[in-house]
Prior knowledge:
By secondary structure, the protein is α/β, with parallel strands linked by helices. It has helices at about 15-20, 35-40, 105-110, 115-140, 155-160, 175-190, 205-210, 215-220, 225-230; strands at about 40-45, 50-55, 85-90, 95-105, 155, 200, 250-255, 255-260, 270, 280-285, 300-315, 320-335, 340-345.
Amino acid sequence: MALEGIGGGLNTFVPTFSAATGQIQIEFTRSVNRFPITQYAQIVPVQQMSGYYLRIDEQETARVVNTQDLLWPLGEDRPTGINSDFEFNQFTTQRFQTSFHIPQETARQAQWDIVASHARIAAAKMMTHRSLRMATQLTTSSNYNTSGGSQNYYAAATNLVSGLTGGITATDGVQQIIRAAIERIVQNTVGAVSPKDILLIVNPTTARIMATSEGVRDYVKNYPAAFSFLKGDDTFAAYGLPQTLFGLGGVVVDDTVRVTSRKGATDARSFLYGTDSAPGMVFVSRPGGLVGNEGPSFSTATVFAYEDMTVETLDDPWNRRVKGSVTDNSATVLTAALSGLYIADANS
């Protein structure tokens, strides 16, 4: 049975909809609050579309090149010391929107709240759009350090764990990668971010590969609640993965789906954060894990929201239409990239 398009005054009127079916309504619309981005990106409301956030040199808190550098001999002038470096980084929000319009006759005769239904669809589309923008930021290699002592981008897992063959499919590969990523982030942030502040973001494909790997199976087998794994209880609700692994603060399986085909074309859809052949792994400092008293934040990903999913409707009597729109005016930014780590291909 083909789906009906919205356009006429009669194609939403079903005489037996209420009595015969009890108003059963099939609508694959995801609640805005259920999008995984809300778990790993910090939302910061802003009053202006352009502004600055402060970044303070993370190295100075741990810079001890020589113990004698800090010596203050008796009778000598106090050492002058070195001022900490800081910089103001700019962000600029962008306005995006998606809209819909429904004939007044259709809205009046529909046996369900068709305007609210379209508003939910539009809001879900805008959250998918925001999730894609943040995923692009988190999976762009130039946003990370690609070499040097503070490197946190790796094209392959073997670049992070020397000698590892097979990535997450190798024996203890998942554990080795996670342990190495935690160690690198703790070093890069000079201990300011602890393992319990770190989240791992993967898509369902990567989660499936990890859940069936030998290392994770052994981990679950020796877990006190191993039977819950077989039953699929909440502890293992993240596509067969525990809520946390090997000391992490949590595992987020981002199952946001992006449809990349135009309406009427051959259907094409995919997850974010990697592909089947090159599953990605992104580590971030969770929102609220460590926030400075005067504003600096160690959350890796931030959404500066000037306008956060504003829903508007307008009754247009002249054209006999009900118009609706959902607007997102925001910026997706890696405010503390050093507190994150990205592996482009965790299978190699």
